[in-house]
Please model this.
Amino acid sequence: MPKRTIIPFGPQHPVLPEPIHLDLAIRDEKVVEAIPSLGFIHRGLELLVDKKDFNDMAFVAERICGICSFIHGQGYCQGIEEIMNVQIPDRAKYLRTIWAELSRIHSHILWLGLAADAAGFESLFMHSWRVREKILDIFEETTGGRVIFGVNKVGGVKKNIENDVLERIVRTLKDMEAEFKPLANVFIDDYSIKHRFSNVGMLSKEDAYKLGAVGPVLRGSGVSIDMRKIGYAAYKELNFEPIVENSCDCYARTIVRVREVYQSVDLIKQAVDKIPEGPTDQKVTGFPNGEFFSRLEQPRGEVVYYMRGNGTKNLDRYRVRTPTFANIAPLVKMLEGCDLADVPVIILTIDPCISCTER
Amino acid sequence: MIEKQETVVIASQDELLKKVAEMSSSGFRLVLISCTKLNHFQIDYTFDKNYEFKNLRFYVPVEKPEMKSISSVFMSAFTYENEIHDLFGIEVHGLNINYGGKFYRINIKAPFSTLKKTVTSAAVEEGKK
Model:
């Protein structure tokens, strides 16, 4: 039997924008075991509830991650609103939905660019990120920020988007869709992308479910679970079904993200058609007293926030379970038996966000 | 209310393991294990099946911070349980992958939750001088 060797992978690696470490046990270039380690950039943001007012924590929540910042803020505010039994105005629900779907589009296109880069397809990477700029411009126009938006508050949202601006956003998305389509076709049909991603990083439907995979990793293994179906924000009034692919490999996870870009554009169109007039926030008085598990669908998958208030301005506990954290155990499974050269691509296809994980 | 959330408090570790095994056999997936430090440690095991939310709650006394691992039933529990050990100092018995306090690979010694107290008392001592 070939000798077992341990190869350290990360925390610094060309394919990883953020630090995660894996000890890879290999025999004959095949990975037999992968042991992950975290903590290199652990920030302890959850503990800030001891010091920050529950209203100010919405800004801390946004800073957990620079890509899904809006949804982190939304999840936090949504949880506090549930504890305090606050009904936010319908327009605020729709605006949150629109910003969340814009976040999903920009996150997925960002990831597609990174995947192209990892496969050595630099022009595809640059074109993907060029298309993504249009979404960042929409964020800048509607919130004033391109990374951190600061529009979520307990009780609604701080900024309105006028109806004429919403219609312009839909037109911009239509243009973006037209520009994205040729790129998406490359991800779907190109021989080298298919060759690099197909039959690599296999995760069966049963393993994906049992190991607690979330988001495109779970749906790429044929499991139809999408937290938007529980109907938070305006999702219960929108028509959509989870995007599912059945080939259980890196290619399936890529295609789920490609198709979700189109789905998000459609959801924004539906939301703009249905958004009601009215206020965008509601005054909230008192302090949260109670607990709630707030669950949302981020671009990377299901995120869970546990919040427990004690009737004072500071919460007892703010716990965040990010999608990347949930996808670590499935990643370990995917890496078992793979070629050493496939490890970077497999890690990339869970779309690891270490900032989130090291909240 | 966005969704109905049911929390069941479990009295003993053995009953907890039995309930967790029941959740697994009835097709629930593990969503989260969470620890909250109050006068005791509140451990929440959260599960989901077809968007149905169920939470099992178990209390660990601060004087004897020990609990049994559920990683033999849900393999993915090892990440949550190692994290709970590193952050809160609860000894988890029967872990399938035990990092021995080094799940977070940093120089600060686990558990981190005692760090705040240590730093504060050290600062107070420093101030007295």
